[in-house]
Amino acid sequence: MARTAIERGTEWLARGGLRPTRQRVALAALLVGDGNDRHVTAEGLFALATRANDRVSLATVYNTLRAFCEAGLMQEVVVDGARSYFDTRMDDHPHFFWEDTADLFDAPAEQLQIARLPDLPPGAELSRVDVVIRLRRA
């Protein structure tokens, strides 16, 4: 029996220890309901929710995405100071970003080689390394 988008979303929320409120379930179903990974902006997810007739405010979308990140279900990819994407794929991997269309998608992780990182300041530990490869049309 195939799982529905709502079932997948509810199971995803449970993995993060989040209470399945109506808004969280609706947004989770849009994010992981088909089993595929997503890169979304808050505005893009709000538009998807609106088209699906899910009644959520843009503020709720922002707050819910932050809660998903804090629960370890998503990670935020900051492209510039004014634009963040939220990624449902949680392993370390690089991204391609098309500057003309503002599309973000996964780059092949197995092709990325980082030979050396700079020494960390005293008292610091590495949290993660984000790699966003910016593209423009030739």
From TrEMBL:
InterPro entries: FUR, WH-like_DNA-bd_sf, WH_DNA-bd_sf. GO terms for biological process: negative regulation of DNA-templated transcription; regulation of secondary metabolite biosynthetic process. Signal peptide: none annotated. The keyword Cytoplasm applies. It comes from the Bacteria. It holds the Pfam family FUR. One of its GO terms (molecular function) is zinc ion binding. Its main location: cytoplasm. It is found in: Cytoplasm. GO terms for cellular component: cytoplasm. Belongs to the Fur family. Homodimer. This is Ferric uptake regulation protein. It comes from Cereibacter ovatus.
